[in-house]
């Protein structure tokens, strides 16, 4: 990533401004504080405060810019942690985990908790526009995890709704592509809000995709673990209901070419259940940059709905997928 892109990406990562210590009595010790920029709220707060943008076609251009730069920010997180690991003794992590394959560098070169609550909404003076930034609160866990030689990746902290399928597979590796799946879930919810409103994100969509998980509990995760055939091995699949939901979004009266191509990237590449076939962050940035450029060059790309006939045809094709 070049310096200009890196600077832009950093705008979408919550930056630590300062740390300070408040000393108390000898018995009480000290309290340590971290200072960050003031945020208006998280992504859900942004959705609540901007209901007037639901269905507003011009908003797609801002979405294209934010999504592209957020992907660059995720790449920064991955790369920064990879650099940290170069100067860290990770041999302890390889001991005590014989029952599960583990790629140490991929495991810790990741954010680990991408969800709407971890996207903070800012209103900076420069540029004078809303901005979404990824709160990298998981960074502090890096050194903590490195100090625990018996930590099973299955027990890593994560938000269940947005977790990648490999967290529930006994022999799968946890890697940076796990972040891609989680980000795909968030972007799909964003498109859901944009076309249908907040209630659809918070109630309709979760209820629509809820099904029994591999532990027998009702879960609104985006995937299901099951054998491809009776007696076969347990494999991950994107839930059919999630595919149906995407098909309905594609049939929406305000769906544009931008949204069609964005939803295809989300469904086919980001929400790929098999981590080995999931899109890499570098390729994702390229595709998001392409969508952004199309929006900037041709306003009809995001301002002109494809029409009910085109939407229905695409939706039917998605259902057959």
What number is the mean pLDDT?
81
Low-pLDDT runs of 5+ residues are 93-100, 139-157
Shape: globular
Determine the N-to-C terminus distance.
35 Å
Strand order of the largest sheet: 3-4-5
Q: Hey, roughly how much beta strand do the residues contain?
A: 5-15%
Largest sheet: 3 strands, antiparallel
Number of strands: 9
Secondary-structure element order, N to C: HEEEHHHEEHHHEEEEHHHHH
Query: Helical proportion?
Result: 40-55%
Number of helices: 12
What structural class is derived from the secondary structure elements? Answer: alpha+beta
Rounded to an integer in angstroms, the radius of gyration calculated over CA atoms is 21 Å
Question: Overview of this structure, please?
Answer:
A three-stranded antiparallel sheet has the order 3-4-5. It has a two-stranded antiparallel sheet with strand order 1-2. The protein is globular. By secondary structure, the chain is an alpha+beta fold. A hairpin with a 5-residue loop joins strand 6 (211-212) and strand 7 (218-219). The chain starts with a helix and ends with a helix. Helix content is 45%, strand content 12%. The chain has twelve helices and nine strands. The protein has helices at 3-10, 43-49, 59-86, 104-108, 141-146, 177-196, 198-209, 240-250, 257-270, 281-297, 300-303, 308-320; strands at 16-23, 30-36, 41-42, 119-122, 131-134, 211-212, 218-219, 223-227, 234-238.
């Amino acid at each position: 990533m070049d310096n200009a892109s890196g600077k832009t990406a950093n705008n979408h990562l919550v930056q630590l401004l300062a740390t300070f210590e408040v000393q108390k009595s000898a018995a009480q010790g000290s309290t340590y504080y971290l200072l960050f920029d003031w945020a208006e709220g998280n992504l859900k707060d942004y959705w609540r405060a901007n209901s007037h943008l639901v269905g507003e076609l011009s908003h797609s251009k801002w979405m294209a810019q934010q999504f592209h730069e957020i992907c660059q920010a995720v790449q920064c997180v991955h790369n920064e942690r990879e650099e940290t690991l170069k100067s860290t003794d990770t041999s302890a992590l390889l001991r005590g985990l014989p029952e599960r394959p583990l790629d140490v560098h991929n495991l810790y070169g990741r954010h680990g908790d991408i969800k709407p609550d971890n996207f903070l909404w800012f209103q900076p003076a420069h540029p004078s526009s809303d901005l979404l930034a990824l709160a990298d609160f998981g960074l502090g866990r890096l050194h903590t995890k490195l100090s625990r030689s018996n930590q099973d990746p299955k027990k890593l902290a994560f938000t269940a709704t947005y977790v990648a399928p490999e967290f529930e597979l006994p022999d799968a590796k946890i890697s940076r592509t796990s972040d891609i799946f989680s980000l795909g879930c968030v972007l799909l919810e964003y498109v859901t809000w944009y076309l249908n409103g907040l209630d659809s994100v918070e109630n309709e969509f979760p209820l629509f995709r809820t099904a029994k998980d591999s532990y027998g509990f009702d879960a609104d995760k985006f995937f299901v673990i099951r054998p491809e055939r009776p007696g076969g091995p347990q494999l991950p699949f994107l839930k059919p209901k999630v595919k149906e939901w995407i098909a309905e979004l594609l049939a929406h009266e305000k769906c544009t070419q931008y949204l069609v191509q964005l939803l295809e990237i989300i469904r086919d590449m980001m929400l790929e259940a098999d981590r080995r076939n999931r899109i890499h962050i570098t390729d994702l940035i390229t595709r998001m940059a392409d969508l952004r450029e199309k929006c900037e060059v041709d306003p009809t790309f995001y301002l002109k709905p494809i029409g009910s006939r085109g939407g229905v045809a695409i939706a039917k094709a998605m259902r057959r997928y």
